[in-house]
Each structure stands twice: as structure tokens, then as C-alpha cells.
Amino acid sequence: SDCWWDGELLLNCSLTGVSALPEDIPQTAVTADFSYNNIKTFLCPDGRDEEWMLKHLNLSNNLISELTLTACRSLPGLETLNLNGNAIHTLTLDIPTPARESNRCGKVGCLLPALKVLSVEGNKLNRVPKGLGLLQSLQTVHLTSNGIRQIELNDFQNCSQLKDIYLRKNDITEIHADAFRDLHKLQVVVDLRDNALTTPLPQIFITLNFFQLEVDLSGKAW
Q: Residue 7 domain-assigned?
């Protein structure tokens, strides 16, 4: 392929016209960039029971419309996943039944156990992806510029490590009063600029720790 491999850490396949992930991705790569291509489907690479060293995966600006993330046994160290600028309308987070039934979650049982940053900006989501709480290390979620219409009670359930939520430029008209109640580590921003909120939401703010949280609601009609 036209991908460039530095022989150690970086695999660069950006702007190479690939329509699928190459089968010969080096397992020692720490960063893999597949941005600006024609990829329509993403499946976790086949590690053949071996763990990959990949920490940063960039799939931005492709043609992905539906994406299902199951327990990627071969990617236990993945820390950032960039899906910006695709056409994703359905993002499904799921793990095998045995892992759901277990109270303990090892590297092979969790859904992307090291993932800290999930970025799905500029897609076609009309709701917050269900199951974010399965990403036990998730700290930042970027959902700017989608078509999300409301924030429901359980959208961020079990997201115990979540620090930053970016929801700017959606179609949000309603946010459940307790949607952020259990997010005790929120410390930077819940960015709600450029949405369609028409009524104040004081109950939400009462449930939040003002010493750690900065909520940006600028530009609202009220």
C-alpha cells in the first residue's frame, strides 16, 4: 500500500485512498492514521490472540456510517479513537455476555479498557451513544456538530472517570435534570453552546459541583 511506516511507532495511511484497513498493520505501531480515505467499515484488527501496542487510532474523514464496537481483545491499550467527520448515525457499544455478568473486568473482558478520549464530532448521531459507561477509562467525549436532540437520564450512566463533555452545535432542546448528577470528576467544561435550549435548567446546576465544573450556555434565547 501507499502507507508510510517509520519502522517503530507510527503508521501513516492518511490520504492514500484506502477503503479498508490493511491486513498487514504492524502490531508494534503506537499511532495509526487512516484519516481522509474511503473507509466505510471498521472492524477491530485480528490480533490472533495477541495484544497490539496501538494507543492512538485516527479514522476521521472517512465514509463510515454505522459502527459497532465490541470487546476488541487485540486493542487493550487504545487510548484515543478519532471518528470525526464521518457519516455515523449509529454507534453501538457492546461487550460479550460473559463480561456483562462479571463484576470484574480484565483486559480481555472490558470494552477498550484504556480508552480515554472518544471523538465523534461532525457526524449524524441523533442521540448520545448508549453504553458509554462500558468504557471504564473514558475521560473525554467529543460529540460536537451532530444532530443530538436531547440528553437522557442514563446517557452518561457509569461514566465514573468522565471529565469533559463537548455537546456544542447539536439540536438539543431538553436535558434531563439528573443527567450529569453522578459525574463527580467533571472538571473542565460541559459545552452546550449553539443548541436549541429554550428554557433554563436550574435543577441540573444544583446537582453539579460548581467548584469543578464550568457550564457554557452562551447564546441561548433565554
A: no
Instruction: Report the domain count for the chain.
Output: 1
d(CA 116, CA 134): 12
Tens of pLDDT, residue by residue over 51-94, are 789 999 999 999 999 998 876 777 889 999 999 999 999 998 86
Question: pTM of the entire structure?
Answer: 0.86
Task: Provide φ and ψ at 134, rounded to 5°.
Answer: -75, -20
pLDDT value of residue 215: 57
**Sign of torsion over alpha carbons 162, 171, 204, 192:** positive
Give the domain range for residue 72. Answer: 55-94+108-217
How many CB atoms are located within 10 Å of the residue 46 CB?
Answer: 11
List, as one string, the DSSP characters of 174-217.
EE-TTTTTT-TT--S-EE--SS---S--HHHHHTS-TTT--EE-
Looking at residue 66, which CATH number applies to its domain?
3.80.10.10
Q: Judge whether 151 lies within some domain.
A: yes
Closest CA to 76 of 20, 159, 137: 137
Q: Is 5 exposed, middle or buried (0-12, 13-18, 19+ CB in 10 A)?
A: middle
Q: Is residue 204 part of a domain?
A: yes
Look at residue 65 and tell me if it is in a domain: yes
What pLDDT sits at residue 208? 63
